[in-house]
Amino acid sequence: MMNKKLLTMLLVAGMAVMFITTGLYAGTDVPDTIKMDYNQYKKRKKQPPKSKFIEFSHKKHNEDYKISCGDCHHDKDNKPLDLKIGDNVQRCAECHTKMAKDKKNKKDIMVLENAMHGNCIVCHKDVNKKAGDPKGMKGPAPASCAKCHVSLKKK
Question: Which residues are noted in the entry as heme c 2-binding (predicted)?
Fold first, then answer.
């Protein structure tokens, strides 16, 4: 009788450890390259089908450029998140859910386009300024519209 209880307790404890360990390693599997294929933008002039979808190299930004997760990923108060590989991460569109600019508030940060442009362009201009361009438009990081929004006609 005692052996059955001990065996049952060990089995339950082992299963608990297995579930906890699995939970620790479960997280978002982030692809090396992320395609910004938000279908809600099909009517926009600079978005598909008139231009290619923007492809963002997550791996290159993180590993080669040494940009930390918190430089892009933030909480609702715009404070950087302290993320590690394997943590659960949401895409921009999970929080920045508005797909169209409001005529009264064109800079609304909840609009996905504003959030992505703000995050990408501001960072790219800073990189270019550090590289010597006072306006931040020319340098190693693309900062103009056509550098990211590549026309399908230019194939």
Answer: 69
Does 92 appear as a known binding residue?
Answer: yes
95 labelled binding-site residue: no
Q: Is 124 annotated as a binding residue?
A: yes
Sign of the Cα torsion 38, 36, 118, 27 reads positive
**pLDDT tens profile 106-138:** 999 999 889 988 889 999 999 999 999 999 999
Q: What is the CATH number of the domain that holds 36?
A: 3.90.10.10
- Indicate if the alpha-carbon torsion angle 12, 14, 20, 23 is positive or negative: negative
> Is 54 part of any domain?
yes
Domain tally for the chain? 1
Asked if the structure places residue 7 within a domain, the reply is no
- Is 117 annotated for ligand binding? no
Residue 25: inside a domain, yes or no?
A: no
User: Which residue numbers in the chain have pLDDT < 50?
Assistant: 21-25
123 marked among binding-site residues: yes
Question: And the tokens for 72?
Answer: 């892009």
145 has binding-site annotation: yes
Q: Which domain holds residue 40?
A: 30-148
| Annotated binding-site residue? 96 | no
